[in-house]
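Much of our argument rests on the idea that a fold can be written as discrete symbols. Part of our work consisted of pairing the sequence of a single chain with a tokenised description of its backbone. We regard such an encoding as a compact summary of how the chain folds. The amino acid sequence and the backbone structure tokens for this protein are reproduced below.
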Amino acid sequence: METLGEILGLVWWLISFVLSMIWSLAWFIVRDLISTLVWAGLVAWIVLALRYRSAVQGSMAMVRYARAGVGYGWRWVRGRPADAPVAVKTKIEIQRLPYVPFGFVSVSAQLNAAVVMLLVLMGHL
């Protein structure tokens, strides 16, 4: 007859084996995700630092965007709707085009016409 210590040892071995296998599988999956997130964060920080022309301002922008992303993810996990979109105040401005005298043709339009004429002439040769 086995003793209580041997039975507890066997149960401990079984539980630790199962947990070890689960942890190994989870870490195998998670380590690549962590590596990918670190590289994506590094690239995002470099882009923001170049955009704001300062490592400090790039870091602050990174924190701001990360905080907004985590908040959005947390609301998604909890099943709550996102914040209401900001109401954009549209201001309609009438665009006034400068006066162009009749017969004026830009250089670009003249070059386009010349290219079309050359293509037509080359097609007839």
